[in-house]
């Protein structure tokens, strides 16, 4: 069954860890969780493919883990706080993994962060239809109807 | 009666904890971050809370994907630091306040916030990094802590509005606790950051600054931000900022902003920090008339109902 379309699919370069991904990726995340224990880290390192057989993984998921394809792991239901445990098993920090997922070198990524990070301009929306934030001056609400209706309902409740 | 005197918000970047643990706080990169908390530590020494309620999120430490509670309140006597994959952080065990915690649980559940109660729970950097930033690195933590873990890992987290209203329910609970206790509440996580996927490294300082401004002056505006907007503007993991709204909901509508700090980056994250004080500071003082007095009456009426419920 194809993945159900969600409003946040419009955010570029982002795999939101939602209920559907959580269900699909249960095996990936439980595998990563097992790496909290030193004995398991050793067993995994000794024979990675064999160790993975203990978890309910699709061939695509096992392949992504063995290839350390972090973006693919997220797409197939992994969550970053879990996959980071695989990174830690390999001796890598969150920042290292972030650089890998963005396809940049460690130095380029570190420099981008020191220069203030990746700008949101040009990175808000795939469709280009997203409005600016309501919070920032000049921005229009991205959900005019919903937020007005909700705000009305809330002020009644509050 | 117990009362909430102030709210503190702070990022809880794990790399900040690692910098403390590896004694790198004097390196220029980290000094820029830590220097922003020097005044806050002084403020905290003055404030000298009897209890701190710390709103944070667990990062696959105490909770895996097996159990994902939306709001989990720590009611245990102590909370050991979790092993996050490279051994537990070398910080003291966090002492709880089971009496106040279970009082809060009972009160807010009857107020229709269906908390999960944790009588055994390990705590990770999400809780201990802000403690280091505000309390330093003492042999023992200076006060008991009530951890409130919020799910912001599995989408969807609770809405900002729900968080804000939970803060109000927590305040009511604290104020109905008979012992005179000075309570400070922390909101942690944020600010803008994305650590996953090809868009990792996203920072939005304009959004963060506007969030801080509104947190002080117009928090209700923040309760209307949809999740989509948090993720789009502040990064997939920037949605953690909903936790700050629990802290803000627990404070007076009008507060004094006594301190603010913001810097980019710490690792992948924009570090934001703010201290807000309630104006009604004196112990036991209650406004003589007006809105709050009405609220007190309603709370008293509610209490009668609660007793009836409890004693059926």
The number of helical elements of chain A comes to 10
CATH class of the largest domain in chain B: Alpha Beta
Q: Rg of chain A, please?
A: 20 Å
Question: N-to-C SSE series of chain B?
Answer: EHHHEEEEHEHEHEHHHHEEH
The CATH topology name of the largest domain in chain B reads: Protocatechuate 4,5-dioxygenase, Chain B
Instruction: Identify the quaternary structure here.
Output: heterodimer
Order of strands across the main sheet of chain B: 6-3-7-2-8-1-10-9
Count of individual helical segments of chain B: 11
**What share of the residues of chain B does DSSP label as strand, in percent?**
15-25%
Tell me the number of strands of chain A: 0
Kindly, what is the distance between the CA atoms of the first and last residues of chain B, rounded to a whole number of angstroms?
A: 26 Å
Largest sheet of chain A: none
Key phrases:
heterodimer, A: 158 residues, mainly alpha, Protocatechuate 4,5-dioxygenase, Chain A, 2 domains, 10 helices, globular, B: 312 residues, alpha/beta, Protocatechuate 4,5-dioxygenase, Chain B, eight-stranded mixed beta sheet, two-stranded antiparallel sheet, disordered C terminus
Concise summary:
The complex is a heterodimer of chains A (158) and B (312). By secondary structure, chain A is mostly helical. Helix content of chain A is 54%, strand content 0%.
């Amino acid at each position: 069954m194809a993945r159900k379309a969600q409003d946040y699919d419009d955010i570029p370069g982002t795999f939101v860890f939602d209920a559907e991904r959580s269900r699909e990726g249960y095996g990936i995340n439980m595998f990563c969780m097992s790496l909290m224990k030193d004995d398991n880290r050793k067993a995994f390192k000794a024979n990675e493919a064999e160790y993975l057989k203990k978890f309910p993984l699709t061939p695509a998921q096992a392949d992504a883990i063995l290839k350390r394809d972090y973006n693919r792991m997220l797409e197939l239901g992994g969550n970053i706080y879990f996959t980071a445990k695989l990174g830690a098993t390999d001796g890598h920090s969150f920042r290292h993994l972030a650089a890998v997922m963005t396809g940049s070198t460690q130095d380029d990524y570190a420099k981008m962060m020191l220069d203030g990070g990746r700008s949101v301009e040009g990175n808000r929306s795939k469709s280009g239809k997203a409005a600016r934030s309501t919070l920032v001056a000049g921005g229009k609400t991205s959900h005019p109807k919903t937020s007005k209706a909700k705000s009305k309902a809330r002020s009644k409740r509050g | 009666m117990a009362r909430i005197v102030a709210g503190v918000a702070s990022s809880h970047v794990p790399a900040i904890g690692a910098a403390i643990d590896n004694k790198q706080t004097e390196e220029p990169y980290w000094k820029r971050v830590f220097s922003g908390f020097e005044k806050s530590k002084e403020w905290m020494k003055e404030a000298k809370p009897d209890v701190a309620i710390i709103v944070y999120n667990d990062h696959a430490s105490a909770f895996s994907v097996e159990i994902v509670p939306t709001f989990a309140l720590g009611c245990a006597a102590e909370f050991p630091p979790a092993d996050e994959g490279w051994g537990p952080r070398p910080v003291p065990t966090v002492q709880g306040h089971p009496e106040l915690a279970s009082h809060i649980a009972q009160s807010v559940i009857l107020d229709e916030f269906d908390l999960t109660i944790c009588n055994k729970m390990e705590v990770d950097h999400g809780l201990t990094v802000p403690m280091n930033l505000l309390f330093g690195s003492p042999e023992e933590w200076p006060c008991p802590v009530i951890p409130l873990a919020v799910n912001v890992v599995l989408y969807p987290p609770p809405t900002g509005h729900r968080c804000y209203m939970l803060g109000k329910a927590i305040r009511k609970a604290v104020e109905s606790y008979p012992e005179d206790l000075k309570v400070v509440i922390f909101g942690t996580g944020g600010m803008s950051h994305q650590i996953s996927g090809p868009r990792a490294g996203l920072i939005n300082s304009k959004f963060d600054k506007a969030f801080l401004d509104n947190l002080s002056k117009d928090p209700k505006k923040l309760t209307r931000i949809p999740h989509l907007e948090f993720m789009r503007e502040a990064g997939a993991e920037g949605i953690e900022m909903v936790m700050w709204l629990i802290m803000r909901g627990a404070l007076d509508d009008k507060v004094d902003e006594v301190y603010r700090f913001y810097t980019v980056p710490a690792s992948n994250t924009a570090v934001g920090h703010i201290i807000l004080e309630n104006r009604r500071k004196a112990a036991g003082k209650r406004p003589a008339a007006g809105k709050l007095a009405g609220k007190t009456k309603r709370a008293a009426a509610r209490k009668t109902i609660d007793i009836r419920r409890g004693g059926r």
